[in-house]
Write a structure and sequence with these properties.
By secondary structure, the chain is of the alpha/beta class. The protein has one domain: Alpha-Beta Complex (Amidase signature (AS) enzymes), CATH 3.90.1300. Helix content is about 35%, strand content about 10%. An 11-stranded mixed β-sheet has the order 1-3-2-4-6-5-10-11-9-7-8, with helices on both faces. Strand 7, helix 8 and strand 8 form a beta-alpha-beta unit. Helix 7 runs antiparallel to helix 15 and helix 9 packs across helix 12. The chain starts with 7 loop residues before the first helix and ends in a 10-residue tail after the last helix. The relative contact order is 0.14.
Length: about 500
C-alpha cells in the first residue's frame, strides 16, 4: 500500500514518530494526482505550493506540533475561497477570480498545519448530483461496473472531493452539502462523508448557493478520520451570523464502539416503490448490525417526507436566485465581449447568459419565478411552512427518545455519465430523496460505505442524528463501519 492510501490517523501517527515526512506523503499524493488526470477530480493544483507547505509542516512536526492534521494532504472543493488560488465554483462567470481572503474553514486547516493539495472539481455553484455541470468537464468515478468500461458519475455536487479520496489523491477532502452533496458522492465513491449540523462549521468565505441549507463538511476513508477533521474545521465564527457558539467537542473521544441502549429509528416513509432490492438489503443489514451491538430498533414516521423534494426545489433555487444576482461582470470574473453600442443592461444579460451553465440558469429562473409577485405566497411561503413541519417531524421523533435515524444514503448505486439527460432534471433531482430532509431540518447526517452491489459498486448507509450531537452520530457510524469492514478499493483503470 502506498503512502497516499493511508488513513489520516495512520499517517498522523507515522508523521509524529518521524517514520515518514509530510514531503514524502504529499509527493506520493502529487504522483497519484498526475497519474489520475483522466478522473478530472482536481480542477487546479500547484506542486511547488504543495511542497512549500509540506516543508513547513515538517518543521512544525520536528518542533513537536501536536495537531492530528499537521502535514496531512487535504483537497479543497472549488467552492471554498483560498487566498491567491483560483476559485471559480466550477463556473465560467468566475473565470480568473483569485480571492484576496481565506474561508474560515480552510484557514483552520492551514492553522493546523495541513497541506492544501489544490481545488477539487464540482457541479457549478454546487447545483447538481453528478458533477457533470461543470466548466472543468465532468469528474469520472474511479469505480467501474463489472464487465463495463462505461464512465460512471462520482456523484455531486462534491464529486471531485469523493473521487479524490477514493482514488488516493489526498487523505481527506472538504465538500459542501446543500441537499446531499457530501453524503451522496461519499456513498457512490465508497468513502465516509459527514454533513454537520447547520451552523457547526462557518460558511464565511464559501461561495453561496442556498444560504439556509449550505454546510461545509469532510470526506475521508474512515469515521475516525472524519472526527479528526471535524475537530479542526468546526467552531464559532463571528464573521458568520449563523455560526453556533457552543464549544467543539473532541469528537475522537466519542468513538468508543459502545452503542448499547441507543434507540435507532427506521422511517417507514423512506421505503420507496421500485427501490432496488440491494438497497433494501443493506438497510436491513445496518439494522441487524446496530441491534446486535446493543441498540434498539424502532419504526418511526416522518409524515411530511413526501413533500421534502418539492419543498427543497422551491427554497434552494429561490435562495440561489438571490445569491447569484451579484455576478454581473462588473467587478470580477467573466465579462462578455462588448462593443461601443452595448448598454449596461445588455452587458448584464450577455455576461450572465454566457457565464452561467444550463443547470444554474434553470435554478435561477425557477427561483426568480417562485419569488415573483403573485407566486411568492403560493410557492415560496408555502414551502417555508412545509419546511417547518418537516423539521417538527424530526423533533417529535427525537423527543420520543430516538437517538438517530438509519436510512439508505441513495436510492441506487452510481449511474453512468450522461445516463440521466438534462431534458429530465426531475430524475436527477430524485437522487436527493433520502438526503434533502436533513438539510431542511438543519440536522447532522453521515454516510458510511456498507458493501458492494452485484456489479461491484459501493452502496452507502446514512445515519441522521440529533442537532449538535455529531459525536454520538459518528460513534454509531463507526459501529457499522467496524462490523462491515469495507476495505474495497476501485480497480485502477486510469
Amino acid at each position: 500500500m502506498g503512502l497516499s492510501a493511508l488513513t489520516i490517523s495512520e499517517a498522523s501517527t507515522l508523521l509524529d514518530k518521524g517514520e515518514i515526512t509530510s514531503v514524502e506523503l504529499s509527493q506520493a499524493c502529487l504522483n497519484e494526482i498526475e497519474a489520475a488526470r483522466e478522473l478530472n477530480a482536481f480542477s487546479w493544483f500547484d506542486p511547488d505550493l504543495v511542497m512549500e507547505q509540506a516543508k513547513s509542516a515538517d518543521k512544525l512536526l520536528s518542533n513537536g506540533n501536536t495537531s492530528s492534521l499537521c502535514g496531512i494532504p487535504i483537497g479543497i472543493k472549488d467552492l471554498f475561497c483560498v487566498r491567491g488560488s483560483p476559485t471559480q465554483a466550477a463556473s465560467k462567470i468566475l473565470e480568473g477570480f483569485r480571492p484576496e481572503y481565506e474561508s474560515t474553514v480552510t484557514q483552520k486547516l492551514k492553522d493546523a498545519g495541513s497541506v492544501f493539495m489544490g481545488k477539487l472539481n464540482m457541479d457549478e455553484f454546487a447545483m447538481g448530483s453528478s458533477t457533470e455541470h461543470t466548466v472543468y468537464n465532468p469528474v469520472i468515478s474511479p469505480w467501474r461496473s463489472k464487465g463495463s468500461e462505461k464512465p460512471l458519475t462520482a456523484g455531486g455536487s462534491s464529486g471531485g472531493s469523493a473521487a479524490a479520496v477514493a482514488a488516493d489523491l489526498c487523505l481527506g477532502a472538504l465538500g459542501t452539502d446543500t441537499g446531499g452533496s457530501i453524503r451522496q458522492p461519499a456513498a457512490f465513491a465508497g468513502v465516509v462523508g459527514l454533513k454537520p449540523t447547520y451552523g457547526r462549521c462557518s460558511r464565511w468565505g464559501i461561495v453561496a448557493f442556498a444560504s439556509s441549507l449550505d454546510q461545509a463538511g469532510p470526506f475521508a476513508r474512515s469515521v475516525e478520520d472524519i472526527a479528526l477533521l471535524l475537530e479542526v474545521i468546526a467552531g464559532y465564527d463571528p464573521k458568520d451570523s449563523t455560526s453556533y457558539k457552543g464549544e467543539v467537542p473532541k469528537y475522537s473521544n466519542y468513538l468508543t464502539g459502545d452503542v448499547r441502549g441507543k434507540k435507532i429509528g427506521i422511517p417507514k416513509e423512506y421505503r420507496l416503490d421500485g427501490m432496488p432490492g440491494e438497497i433494501e438489503e443493506i438497510w436491513e443489514e445496518g439494522k441487524i448490525i446496530l441491534k446486535d451491538a446493543g441498540a434498539t430498533i424502532v419504526d418511526i414516521s416522518l409524515p411530511h417526507t413526501e413533500f421534502a423534494l418539492p419543498t427543497y426545489y422551491v427554497i434552494a433555487p429561490a435562495e440561489a436566485s438571490s445569491n447569484l444576482a451579484r455576478y454581473d461582470g462588473v467587478r470580477y470574473g467573466y465579462r462578455a465581449a462588448l462593443d461601443s453600442n452595448t448598454n449596461i443592461v445588455d452587458m448584464y444579460k450577455r455576461t450572465r447568459g454566457e457565464g452561467f451553465g444550463a443547470e444554474v440558469k434553470r435554478r435561477v429562473m425557477i427561483g426568480t419565478y417562485v419569488l415573483s409577485q403573485g407566486f411568492y405566497e403560493a410557492y415560496y411561503l408555502r414551502a417555508q411552512k412545509i419546511r417547518t413541519l418537516i423539521k417538527k417531524d424530526f423533533e417529535d421523533v427525537f423527543n420520543d427518545g430516538v437517538d438517530a435515524i438509519l436510512t439508505p444514503t441513495t436510492p441506487s448505486p452510481a449511474f453512468a455519465l450522461g445516463e440521466i439527460s438534462d431534458d429530465d432534471p426531475i430524475k436527477m433531482y430524485l437522487n436527493d430523496v433520502f438526503t434533502v430532509t436533513v438539510n431542511l431540518a438543519g440536522l447532522p447526517g453521515i454516510s458510511v460505505p456498507a458493501r458492494l452491489d452485484s456489479k461491484g459498486l459501493p452502496l452507502g448507509l446514512q445515519l441522521i442524528g440529533r442537532p449538535w450531537e455529531e459525536g454520538d452520530l459518528m460513534n454509531l457510524a463507526q459501529s457499522i463501519e467496524s462490523n462491515v469492514q469495507f476495505n474495497h478499493k476501485p480497480q485502477r483503470w486510469w
